[in-house]
Amino acid sequence: MERIPILRMGPFLLITIQVDMHDKLAVQLQDDVTQRISEWGSTGVLIDISSLEIVDSFIGRMLANIAAMSRVLGAETVVVGMQPAVAITLVELGMSLPGVRTALNVEMGMELLYNQQSAVGLSDERARA
Amino acid sequence: MTKVAEIIKRNEDQIRADWMKNMAKAVQRADLMSKQELDEQSRALLASIAEGTAVDESADLTGPAWYKAKSLLEQISASRARQGFSPTETCTFVLSLKEPLFNSFRRESSGNPDETFAHIWRTTLLIDRLALLTMEAFMRTREEVISRQQQELLELSTPVVKLWDGVLALPIIGTLDSARTQVVMENLLQAVVSTNSKFAIIDITGVPTVDTLVAQHLLKTITAARLMGADCILSGVRPQIAQTIVHLGINLADVITKAKLADAFALALQRSGRGVVRLASNSAEPVPSSPIPTSVKES
Amino acid sequence: MSAQELELIPIQSSSDVVVVRQRVRQRTTDLRFTLVDQTKLVTAASELARNALDHGKGGRMTMEILNGTSRVGLKLVFEDNGPGIPDIEQALKDGFTTGSGMGLGLGGSKRLVNEFAIESEVGKGTKVTVVRWK
Fold first, then answer.
1. Measured between beta carbons, which residues in chain B are less than 8 angstroms from residue A92?
2. B192 touches chain A (CB under 8 A)
3. Cα–Cα distance measured from residue C95 to residue C98, given in angstroms and rounded to the nearest whole number
4. Do A97 and C98 touch (CB under 8 A)?
5. What is the tally of structural domains in chain C?
6. Which of B37, B110, B117, B124 has the smallest set of CB atoms within 10 Å of its CB?
7. Which of A57, A68, A84 lies closest to C47 in CB terms?
8. pLDDT per residue rounded down to tens, chain B (299 residues)
9. CB C120, CB C84: distance < 8 Å
10. Which strand ranges, in their side-by-side order, compose the sheet holding A101-103?
């Protein structure tokens, strides 16, 4: 079955979503992410949605779930590359993606993760989770 | 009894000659249209009217016999609207066809005044309706021109400027209506993406009033920008606008606001880890070409 | 007002929801809607299709181009023969919630379109009609 590939970038994971996601794929992704964080001890997850032209409540929930699950495992999630039309639509839809940090691109997302980790200290993160 | 069509066919040249003579020089607008073009238009129109009446004696323009005349008139009217003819000039072109036609009916009347009257009546109805059609087509074209100009004005009127790496500014001048605000905001978000700017300063110094709808749009834009990973700073909020915002009960708790664009810029620089320092300068030194003796230090 | 061909798309699985998105996207592109308007309508369609699938136990969508006197629009009708919605007012208010799964996305979808109508009868089914004008 097709799977969304998860790349390892040092302490972080990079997930690029390019296809129209359906339920099974979303569940598979959530499983895979949690699996990898445990395996590799990743402290950050970057989800690149720059190819997504539509983000509906299903995808929104998926992103929020991934962020929540990752946090429990000690990793922060940053969603990057949201298209303007998508952002405008999400605001209209009333969806705020709670618990999900965002950045304009992967680089800035990584910066965010590094800054956060050096500022707060990893042990604090885990304690807060 | 399609006698009208026959009469027109027989008298075509005379009718056209009289028509041109009737059209006051002013209406002909030799400055906008060549004699040749005018001749072609009149020839084509008269022919299509003759064809129409040959098939359909009534003055009901919705029938298929009138498609040709109608589309011809729409084209003529639209092109005249674009060329700069006035509505009167354009309609007079059509209306002044009446007299030559009526004259030809009189010339050809076989001593039957009722028949002549019937021709005249039907024809006047027909020409009136064609003239109305002409007017409608003219208006539509004018409206298209206006709307296109409005669009261009909209796009030109609120440019997004890059103040520094990662800092954009959107100085808004003039009143904001719902449509303009939406366009402006979409442009801003697009610019945020294409320049990877984490900060966008929306300056409303030049906006005289803000109503609930506009305030809501501003808020939506700021929220959308945040969702994308950028921060908006609202600057240039005048005292009156501040009062309006409070009176309208708009909640700006989540929005960073600064009275002046300069303050907003300083904040954006600071937030992106930068500061502005004065370089040590000797007053005897010639003033460098760049008038501001400061540098932006990256930390 | 004249209507053009009706397009019917069955909604029986999650891959059908993907088809709904693609077809609506195609239509709005053909009609030259602005990008933002396209995104809004396709997102609304995705929400409503998903509702028909998850809560309505499967249904269908019909898509129709509306030719008004001075404007063009796209009309989408989502129908299912599922359990229906007992309290429509409430469902519209809940609008949308992340995580709990009960958010129907109805209230949210309403904000993304120009016209919105809903009929529902418990035990019979639900029908949602939305229109977006260019």
1. 220
2. yes
3. 10
4. yes
5. 1
6. B110
7. A57
8. 457 888 888 888 888 888 888 876 666 777 778 888 888 888 899 888 888 888 877 778 888 888 888 899 988 888 888 888 888 888 888 998 898 888 888 888 777 888 888 888 989 999 999 999 999 999 988 888 888 888 777 766 778 999 999 999 999 887 777 778 888 889 999 999 999 999 999 999 888 888 888 888 888 899 999 999 999 999 998 888 888 888 888 777 778 999 899 999 999 999 988 888 888 865 555 555 555 545 555 54
9. yes
10. A6-9, A12-16, A44-48, A76-80, A101-103
Whether CATH 3.30.750.24 fits A6-128: yes
User: What Å distances lie between residue B76 and A108, B19, B71, C128, CA to CA?
Assistant: 58, 17, 9, 46
Is-contact B202 B235, C-beta < 8 A?
A: yes
C-alpha to C-alpha distance for B155 and C101, rounded to whole angstroms = 42
For residues A57 and C105, give the distance between their C-alpha atoms in angstroms, rounded to a whole number: 7
How remote is the C-alpha of B57 from its chain's centroid? 39
Nearest residue, CB atoms, A58 vs list C15, C50, C95: C50
Q: Does any CB of chain A come closer than 8 Å to the CB of residue B196? A: yes
Residues in chain B: 299
A18: tokens are 């390019």
Cβ–Cβ below 8 Å for A93 and C22: no
Instruction: Pull the structure tokens for residue A72.
Output: 């429990």
DSSP H helix total and E strand total for chain B:
11, 7
Structural domain boundaries, residue C28: 2-133
- The answer to whether the CB of C124 falls within 8 A of the CB of C81 is yes
Question: What subunits make at least 3 CB pairs under 8 angstroms with C?
Answer: A
> Domains in chain B, please, with CATH?
3-153 (1.10.490), 161-298 (3.30.750.24)
Q: Could you report the predicted ipTM of this complex, rounded to two decimals?
A: 0.86
CA-nearest residue to A62 within chain C is C99
Residue A101: phi, psi to the nearest 5? -85, 155
Provide the angle, in degrees to the nearest 10, between the axes of the packed helices B35-55 and B3-22.
160
With b for 16 or more beta-carbon neighbours within 10 A and e for fewer, the B257-270 pattern comes to: bbeebeebbebbbe
pTM of the full structure = 0.70
